[in-house]
Amino acid sequence: xSESFRKGTTGSIYQTLRQSIMNLELYPGSRVTETELAQxxxxxxxxxxxxxxxxxxxGYLTIRPKHGCYIRQLDVFELAEYYDVxxxxxxxxxxxxxxxxxYREVAQLAEDWDPQQARYGMSGSEEFKDAEELxxxxxxxxxxxxxxxxxxxxxxxxxxxxRRLGLPDQDSVMQTYREHHEICQRILANDLEGAxxxxxxxxxxxxxxxxxxxxxxxxxxxxxxxxxxxxxxxxATPGTLPAH
Length: 244
What we know:
Shape: elongated
Structural class: mainly alpha
CATH superfamily of the largest domain: GntR ligand-binding domain-like
Number of helices: 10
Strand order of the largest sheet: 1-3-2
Distance between the termini: 7 Å
Oligomer: single chain
Largest sheet: 3 strands, antiparallel
Order of helices and strands: HHEHHEEHHHHHH
Number of strands: 3
Radius of gyration: 19 Å
CATH class of the largest domain: Mainly Alpha
CATH architecture of the largest domain: Up-down Bundle
């Protein structure tokens, strides 16, 4: 047990629970309470409550007063609708750049995602996944419409788990580098139509991979628990607290 974990900080509890949710160890729909988590981690309820509130803001779970917290369900049909909204927002962001393309900022994004440098690693690590999500936020921010960015962040909170499951191998990681880099190059060439076409294809392919990996992970976890399968929504089942 690490020193930071023994201290029972909000950050360490948040990271442990988040990783368990991402790994589907805390199964979608399962219920946990502040009391049982506090007992599990050997801390007071305050850092647990703060960690749960942060996870709720980021879309990993829902807090129901007096009932506990429920790990967010993964409904692939609802997720597809969020992806549709995401596409619309990101494409509108490029369109809003118009003739006011911030070339210096876009050039920096292109450099950050140069496949030859692979600045964020090649393993599909948490650093890479964070950077992948941030790329799309930073690109949207360049359109100059903070409301659009706010909505995009909200959509990301609803699809974050499946986005992070959708980078299963090195080929996918390398493809992400190439496509991010090329999208920026097309914007720099004032080819906004070409950038739009590529961005749409990039997001749709990411969506397809995420759906495939998510369903495979859910089916594996359900078999482990002897629950059967369901291609639509993961049903509520008891959670398994992370070992510590």
